[in-house]
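Key idea: predict the complex, not the pieces.
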Amino acid sequence: MNATARLATVASRPERVGLGVMVTLSLGVIALGAGWVAGPSAAVVAAAMLATVVGLVSVAFVGGLETRRALAPYGLLKPGILWLSLFFLAPLWSMVVMSLSSKESRFDFFPSFTWEWDNYRIALTDFRPQFLRSFGYAAVATLLTILIGFPLAYVIAFRGGRYRNILLGLVVIPFFTSYLIRTLAWGNILADEGPVVSIIDGLGLQGAFESLNIMDNGKLLNTPAAVIGGLTYNFLPFMVLPIYVSLEKIDPHLIDAAMDLYSSASAAFRRIVVPLALPGIFAGSLLVFIPAAGDFVNAQFLGNPQTTMVGNSIQDQFLRQLNYPVASAMSFVLMFIITIAVLVYTKFMGTEDLA
Amino acid sequence: MAGKLNRRQFLIRSGMAGAGALSLPALLAACGGDEGGSGGGGGNSLFFENWPLYIDEETVKVFQEASGVSLKYTEAYNDNNEYFAKVQPSLSKGDKIDPDVIAPTFWMAARYVQLGWAQKLPVDKIPNIANLRDDLKGQPWDKDQEYNLPWQTGVAGIAYNMKTTGRELKSVEDLFAPEFKGKIGLLTEMRDTMGLVLMGLGKNISKLSTFDEAAEAFDKVEKAKNDGQIRAFTGNDYVDDLSAGNFAACVAWSGDVLQLTKDNPDVRFVIPEEGGTNWFDTMIWVKGSENSDAVAKWMDYVYDPVNAAKITAYVQYMSPVKGVQDELVKMGGEAAPLAEDPLLFPDEATVARLQSWGALSEEEEAKFDEAFAAITGA
Amino acid sequence: MTAFSRRQRIGQRLINGVAGLGLFYIFLPILVIVIFSFNAPKGKYNIKWQGFTLDNWAKPFAESELTAALWVSLRIALISTFCATILGSLIALALSRYKFKGSGGINLFLVLPLTSPEIVLGSSLATLFLNRGVDFGYVTVIIAHVMFQISFVAVTVRARIRGFDWTLEQAAMDLGATPSRAFWKITFPLILPGILAAALLSFALSIDDFIITFFNAGSLVTFPLQIFGASRVKIPPQINVLATMLLFASVSLMVAGTVIGNRRQRKLAGN
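Result:
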């Protein structure tokens, strides 16, 4: 078979060519970016990538309109996918390598790869409280966003009428102020001589709040409750929007019909509204839990030394202690746990609702 | 256009060089500055990155008019360790960073000098260096005073809010008093916080050389943290918490509190009877910067007691410059009483109570930092 | 309405009340921010309410470093949004326009950056840059922003052009238009509003990003980083003023986005 004929055969299966080229190029940029190859072998990889592109162009040239049409989606995908391969996937690889590296001396700037499993031991033992807190706080915050977000979404979807969009806008608008300033403002609100504590004291409720572990020694700011409250507040829209989207799809007549059939409105609510809202609640939970578990801003501004989360530790180890290996090990553990949760979720629910 | 301007500036400066008593190497350095300079300023510009709220509003402007140097002054130096982490990637590769001059705290300045990331100051072009206070001269890591020139010095002591404490505080032990549970703030700056605690335990921090000698103090702080005694580890932001009544008391820097007292007379500052930690932030000239002329002009300017007094009147820290006390009196008005302030010009009895940290080996310093990071919990 | 029993009405009121409280909760900090933008602090610190003034609003740009940081953020957001919008829209176009092998995998791949904690994205990208000896600054921040914006744009645009009638393009070609002419004359104007809406939202993401930027900025100071620095020293009332302005700007952009989106929907309905 001569070259042209071979090309023509290949061109008859354009999908494979398109996918193959995309995967090859992605692997190529990851290899170059993450430093799998260096020096002369890097040049070889670069040359191979160039050859792949040349091959693709010739296939497109030899093949007809149909071939080019089948190749088109891959062409459209390529720039974005390659960007993500280089600046999302390759960094994850660098992180894994870093998490197994060690430094020879304190100011030895760049750690070298030594299969240093001890970093993971440090991450999982020394920083265990921070991990547990992160997941615990994030879980409670997720529950609270459901409790606050569901009635909001429900009222907007079923009682909003023609003001639906405006109401929805009202829910989202505050989150267009800067994240940090919002959180700092909560610091003002919860301060010891601030409005909330004064009201609680005025009503004589301090004892009740203390026994619920919300207040501690007369203070609200710098307690676990304040951190969880901040997380709840900052990620609330990620819960309201998906729930609203799934409620919006419900035909109000369905509820009317249910009301006719069931004896009580609460039964209709339980059997119709809640099940249909579940996809939104699941998607919202994921969208709240993930950023909450990795956050360090709320714990920094609203917490105390005993409420630090894993984000604070990663930030401190990376940006202050210059301990990149341990910071990377912690990042990896966090990423690993969350990725599993996401994969389990997408297995059952698909990727649609996460947008 | 920019090129012409540069050349003209250069001619003016060369003329000054001829008239003044500048050395030949300095002149060569100035030429080098022009060649290497990109864009507008060349060797006649300066970038000083300093701690926030560490200069009055006039000095930068007046200096620029007087010297013809275009000075970029920013306040992005928030934390010694964080700043070091930020610049380490560039400096360790031998690249330059944007600022020409920074003002780390003395122990961090020592690190820059030891790593070779600070260059020798153009001392012969800074005649006012003679005004440097004697007690700050010749640090162990810079015996000949070639690399650093102190910016301000101060004391870490205890600040408290009279309204919340209900009584005057005097001792380091007050930080651990059960009545203030959950209302105590400590600084993230390890030496300031641990220095006080160590002195409270009767240690002399200037003679400390190993972590083992200090372990007791770290245990004490860790226990306080676990008991919920400590509300937060902060940087400068303790000022907010103190003023808002969130902190009853905290480890604090003298100048900040003097400032705050203006707004809130309930806030007091005390150097505990066990002692206070003495520190200074010091200007260093970062490796790779070429603007030696501008660096010299700036340092000379701020070491003129008249100019230094203006800065002192605003920041209210102790000036490292001799003669500031007299200048404050001459300034009159609000500045004059500062000349009598014992926190700015401490008497001998107070000075005797102040201690500063000695040098720690790299290995021991790492132990201190790690132990402290473990306590701050981040 | 008469069909509801008393108990049901109480239930309805209760849920309305809870939702009302929710809205109040959402607006509480915003109220504080806006109120403190009118504060006249006596000293260096804007902590306690001291008195009403309009000075901060008269001189919103009095804090030069803060203003400079805002411009840095705007510049970064403009550039990164421009790049991400193109790259992300191409992906969305491929996903909604064509059926092809591997599209399921691409869908999952796109969701991953959105479901990774920001701290992981930020620290791992910083590790890559450290590894390669790349100096932190404008370029690294823009790269980082484009990275998290691509997925966002792709997913949003895909959702908005779902249900688009691709046969329109085919019809144009049947009438003799070249494929590229058919695309630019027919398809592009119809999907443009969706793209613009996604661009506006991702612009807002970029302006406000703190965590990822914190790891990759080096000594570059963006608006959120400036606020973070200021939070440890002093919070000038100008921060509140600029934040309020940004809020209004974002809201106007969002309203514009909705209006554009609605017009598009009417247009589609008309077709």
